[in-house]
Specification:
The protein is an alpha/beta fold. The chain folds into five domains: about 70 residues, no CATH class; about 110 residues, Nucleic acid-binding proteins (OB fold (Dihydrolipoamide Acetyltransferase, E2P)); about 110 residues, no CATH class; about 200 residues, Rossmann fold, CATH 3.40.50.300; about 180 residues, P-loop containing nucleotide triphosphate hydrolases (Rossmann fold, 3-Layer(aba) Sandwich), CATH 3.40.50.300. Helices cover about 35% and strands about 20% of the residues. The strands form four sheets. It has a seven-stranded parallel sheet with strand order 11-12-10-13-14-9-15, with helices on both faces. The longest helix is centred in the first third of the chain and has 32 residues. Bound molecules: adenosine-5'-diphosphate and magnesium ion. The site of adenosine-5'-diphosphate (ADP) has 18 residues, from helix 9.
Amino acid sequence: MATLDTKLVDVVGDRTVKVLESAIGVKTVGDLLRHYPRRYVVRGELTDISALQEDDEVTILAEIFSANTRTLQGRKGTILEVIVTDGKSKLSLTFFNQAWREREMRVGRQGLFAGKVGVFKGKRQLSHPDYELIADGSDVDSAIDQFAGKYLPLYPATAKLPSWKIAQCMELAIGALDEVEDFLPEQIRQEHGYPSLKESLVTLHQPQDLEQAELARERLTFDEAFLLQLLLVVRREELRALKTTARVVRSGGLLDAFDQGLPFELTPGQREVCSEIESDLAASHPMHRLLQGEVGSGKTVVAIRAALAVVDSGGQAALLAPTEVLAQQHLRTLEKLLGPLAQGGKLGANEHSTQLTLITGSQNAAGRKESLALAASGDAGIVIGTHALLGEKVAFQDLGLIIVDEQHRFGVEQRDALKSKAETPPHLLVMTATPIPRTVAMTVFGDLDISTLRELPLGRQAITTHVIPVLEKPAFMDRAWSRILEEVSQGHQAYVVAPRISASTPENSDMDFLFGTTSAELSSVEELAPTLHSGPLKGLRIAILHGQLATDVKDATMQAFSAGEIDVLVSTTVIEVGVDVPNATIMVIMDADRFGVSQLHQLRGRVGRGTSPGLCLLVTQANAEAPSRARLDAVAATVDGFELSRIDLEQRREGDVLGANQSGTRSHLRLLRVLRDEGLIDLARKDAIATIADPEWAKHNLALAKSLALLQDDAASQYIDKG
Ligand code: ADP
Ligand code: MG
């Protein structure tokens, strides 16, 4: 008898094993049984032929209407034409030089036919389809009676391996299968009313009725959610067991000075998160916290306060920003708010003072050397930087806290690179650029504690967003430019965003994803700026900003814009996240259909950050029916970042939803969909937490511990699980 670990050679023939392995990558009985059917066709319920589309790869259930062989005109050979029907429409199947098939193509017989729908002389057809005729009584000796049931499973098949061949192998595997060890704790299984593992697998492949199959599928989906959550909560427990230096907040230091200099009151939400973080920092195990919040909710202040608390307690903090523009901005914000307290080391400095330093990729050698020395000696309490901070030469005296700003795809590898620079495991605060739905957060960052900032600071004005379809309403474009003129005349500033740098550069290559087909006439920063300067925005002070400019130019431009010396900044998405100039009130995004939903939401978050209302205009050449127009309408309709990120994620493939962080576990997720299966993930998380509440859980659930170990091995080999 076979177990899930039995090699396939023991249950199916050698040649089939080879095909199975190369076509769908399965080696064991368990692998095969986890190749799940996509859906079922009901015996006797014929597929609606009229609905088939040209070029579709289809498997259909149909009845043979006629079969005729004729010789080809002017050429050697024969052609067998079989017409199949669903009772209404017909479809032609053609076979060349296979007249012998005519014998089995008896009129009235049903079969599954698979192939690509083509059109020949106006008629739809499958040429050389794969097929499997269904046993119909006259086939008493049909060797494998896979079609005994009412429901015929349809598998994700390949050209080499049609769905019914897979079904035949399943039949053999299931026939040989012994009792299967069920790793799901019995109590959990019963609570949810789920069938056993073996029953679930068998039912899914050979259902007696569809409700049973649905329940089996739910159980197997739950299994995936449960194992994944178990992996994450176990990992979180392990992190909690690590020892690190407690960083207890001290009064009368930098943090207090910073608070006194703050030009505003913290919101209740900010205060709550700050105290969560302070108590995390004071613990003797490392903090692992994700801070997510609406654009403009004030995450930076929270992060800076955490950094200062650590400096006050004698340690250092590293602040990692996704772009140089943002790193520079953080440095300036800190310098401004700390004033003399950031002048440590200088003559006459305050006794509590520290130093700030910046490490970026484009620093000159001398600047780099100085920054490295400040970080290594511990003189710099806060080291701000881009990914250059991860470099090998960067060392710290006593790194107590790592803050990752505005990056929701910060990989475990990068975290590890930074962590390796600390004596004891540092505290970690990750801030996301985009709010993400709860279950995605739970899955992608399931080993982190999560804080959420939902409210915006008091007095913050709403952002109004409108779509400008230039092809339909060209006059609206002029109106957009005159709105900029109006804002500037009232002392405000504007952004104009374009999808590429110049006519000869491609669209921003680091854009999350691109939509639609390329249009020949996408706006570019370098073309737009002079056009605006000599045209609709004549007389205004216009500057450009993009990633390929020299660092000092970028920095000088941002500073000038911050200082109000520039009216209009024409830019690429380098300003997407984090850039904070409260006096900017209007943003015009050219070819807005080229950007993702969350990206647009981030971009428009650059305006309306002060006390004046913000306006965002989404310019598009897409026509009213284009899917991208629906996306733009969605962005215009709501300012709820959580809702938008959901819309955004729904358009991605599952792998992209989970991101690189989860590459190891991803391959184990066959059925689970993090957006669709929120309810199951919630339950699974609760069950996982309850399970490990028993310190001896592994002893009491041997099969479960074994399954988890397997997943951990895979995950570790894919970098998810490096301490
Ligand atoms: P994000 O969460 O998008 O990173 P920021 O941290 O950049 O947002 O904050 C956005 C703006 O709001 C900044 O100008 C910041 O100084 C300001 N801000 C933050 N907290 C408050 C507050 N409690 N009251 C008023 N303004 C605040
Ligand atoms: Mg920010």
